[in-house]
Amino acid sequence: MAIGLIMKKALIQLHIAVFLWGFTAVLGRLITLNEGLLVWWRMVLTVVTLWILFGSRARRVSGSALLRMFGAGSIIVLHWVFFYGSIKYANASIALVCFSSAGLFTSLLEPLFFRRRIHLSEVGLGLLCLTGIYCIFHFSPRYGTGILLGLICALLSSLFNIFNKKLVAVHEPEVLTLYELSGGLLFWSLCLPLYLHFFPQPSFFPGWADFGWLLILSWLCTVLAFTLSVHALKVITPFTLTLTFNLEPVYGIILAFIVYHENRYLGPGFYMGFALILLSVLLQMRRLLRRRRPAAAAT
């Protein structure tokens, strides 16, 4: 009975974390700063908070490990820039649909990095996902830039998950996130002057309303969501975590429909494409479940 309650609590924590991550798209549209400044302020507030909370746990790591962490942090920062850029150039729903293809990018890229055989079923699922994105683009070409940015965002998310897989196995999650986001902040601070040269913003500092949304984005959707997911991971398996992450775009799209009524501006092409992408994600989850069962039975 006690084990069941602990598991239930962990699953609730995980779903709250995923829901908060889905809410980031809504906040990205609320904040008026461009994507470059939005990400920089989010990183500043998040990194300062993480150092206050987890700075005492920081451990000295080797130079090569620190470079790998900084590299992973730079990838996740670029992922956020393209994600919020997709929202600014299209809308939250388009960005989230494109982001939902990240898992399929991972299934196609992992064999290249880990030198294992590519399964034809994975290629088929990838093509199904791309067909869905093509449907959205074909019927809504005005969202072309946003779709392209969203696909790059999904690709960067896949690369981050692949590079992060080995780091997670060696380092504590809190310490790893602390160094990764600190490295990402350093990287983006160096890139920001050049970025603002090509994409200028009237003011470097956010207004009071934007600052309030940034605090919610940093404290609730980043720090709190991360803490909840880490505590949940102590009880549930990484496999369950991976499957639950697929709900993030679904939560985000529902929130975008409720808050912004984006469903009024999306034609049949969006729903057709979203249905194909959702089908590809569900089939990928089914493949993982079927692959999981024999291993569980053997155990």
Number of helices: 12
Task: Sketch the major β-sheet.
Answer: none
The count of domains is 1
Q: Distance N terminus to C terminus? A: 23 Å
Binned strand content: under 5%
Could you tell me the mean pLDDT?
83
Which residues sit in consecutive blocks of at least 5 with pLDDT less than 50? Answer: none
Could you estimate the helical fraction of the residues in percent? over 70%
Oligomer category: single chain
- Beta-strand segment tally: 0
Order of helices and strands: HHHHHHHHHHHH
C-alpha geometry: globular
Describe this structure in words.
By secondary structure, this protein is an all-alpha fold. The mean pLDDT is 83. The longest helix is centred in the last third of the chain and has 31 residues. The protein is 83% helix and 0% strand. The two termini are 23 Å apart. It is built from twelve helices and no strands. Helix 1 runs antiparallel to helix 9, helix 2 packs across helix 3 and helix 2 packs across helix 9. It is globular. The protein has one domain.
